[in-house]
Amino acid sequence: RNIHANGASMFFICLYLHIGRGLYYGSYLYKETWNTGIILLFITMATAFMGYVLPWGQMSFWGATVITNLLSAIPYVGTTMVQWIWGGFSVDNATLTRFFTFHFLLPFLIFALMVLHLMFLHETGSNNPTGLASNNDKVPFHPYFTYKDLLGASVMITATLSLALFSPLLLGDPENFTQANPLVTPPHIKPEWYFLFAYAILRSIPNKLGGVLALVMSIAILFIIPLTHNTPQRT
């Protein structure tokens, strides 16, 4: 359980570094690869959120209540959508069952999209720090990049195991060790660190619908980035 919980944090570290690398290297110009990656980001964030609810602690319960309530800001259909997700009129056992089901099934969709993402990548190839595509000075993938990838994987596995074994609660919230209680609201409802950017956006915009739109656009804007590139060099 500790490996699973801390593995989510390590996964998002790799994910955000991967996005940063793609922005720096100009990989967004490979539109199919880039767009499938953004879709993967959305689905991964949804999977992580639903997984965070499953321990059914105070922070899990109230986080689910706050975030799902945001959908009620959608005109006309928002309230109906929220009640459908809840399976009733509040976050309850039906909600937990649905979140568990989706948390189990979505990784299969993530895997399928990851295969598609890699297929597009192999059609175009990866970019490099110079931003210039060239057929000169190429090296074989094996053994050079094999060893490089093995080193990176070893570092991440070691870091994950170290967190899980020696400091499993470092990235968690102590409030979540208290059993969910609908009658007691925690003084500060905050998400895991990898969702703090979304939390900051929602807190900074007083209008509910405006906050939801800003939150979605903070990620969806990645779709627009390729349109802003107007130089021959990729980086």
UniProtKB/TrEMBL annotation:
InterPro entries (UniProt xref): Cyt_b/b6_C (IPR005798), Cyt_b/b6_C_sf (IPR036150), Cyt_b/b6_N (IPR005797), Cytb/b6-like_sf (IPR027387), Cytochrome_b_C_euk/bac (IPR048260), Cytochrome_b_N_euk/bac (IPR048259), Di-haem_cyt_TM (IPR016174)
Positions of the Cytochrome b/b6 C-terminal region profile domain: 131-235
Location(s), subcellular: Mitochondrion inner membrane
Keyword Mitochondrion part of the UniProt annotation: yes
Names of the cofactor(s): heme b
GO BP, one annotated term: mitochondrial electron transport, ubiquinol to cytochrome c
Quaternary structure annotation from Swiss-Prot or TrEMBL: The cytochrome bc1 complex contains 3 respiratory subunits (MT-CYB, CYC1 and UQCRFS1), 2 core proteins (UQCRC1 and UQCRC2) and probably 6 low-molecular weight proteins.
Full protein name: Cytochrome b
